[in-house]
């Protein structure tokens, strides 16, 4: 908007080649507290379950990429057009690297979701990529609550080496499972992060993803390594070379 308020515009596209503008659908003034500052909502994604919906927004403010949030509420009919009645805003990832996730229905509970792990200090000479992708996640909606979890297909499908007590520096490609005694992640610049029992941690080079059993995941990217201490088992992730059938 002209005053810097973020907004989503509504279009009709019954004919994918002929879009009709229907007006402003939602603005930052419509949201309850907790959304965080933004002058642009990037990559809006709407997950609908009956008369409930979660609007996933990536917050952009003054050129700075911020949090990814879910705005949940009722989806009502307003003269033949859908209208969201926002009730709650939830931060979906507690780290600092997730941005611009995309979601899709795949016939299983919730929605398949995959996000971008941004790479802010990338060498300007590198032209073939910009960051990387997270592991696939699930967006789950329960009333006014929206949350992200690790997609079970990932947990079941990764090929892991034998688990072993894994305190110390995290490097390469590895999976860490926190036992009943809990644990703690440490980083020279990003500080310490306690880990509750049942938390899964995945490290892939300079990317680290944390999946607690009862709170939001966290995504980090940093060239300096992390360390973990406590009741943990670590398994190497066996990477398979890419093959092509072309």
Automatic annotation (TrEMBL):
Residues 5-152 form the Glycosyl hydrolase family 32 N-terminal domain. It holds the Pfam family Glyco_hydro_32N. The keyword Hydrolase applies. InterPro entries: GH32_Enzymes, Glyco_hydro_32_N, Glyco_hydro_beta-prop_sf. One of its GO terms (molecular function) is hydrolase activity, acting on glycosyl bonds. The keyword Secreted does not apply. It comes from the Bacteria. Keywords: Glycosidase, Hydrolase. Belongs to the glycosyl hydrolase 32 family. This is Glycosyl hydrolase family 32, N terminal domain protein. The lineage of its organism: Bacteria, Bacillati, Actinomycetota, Actinomycetes, Micrococcales.
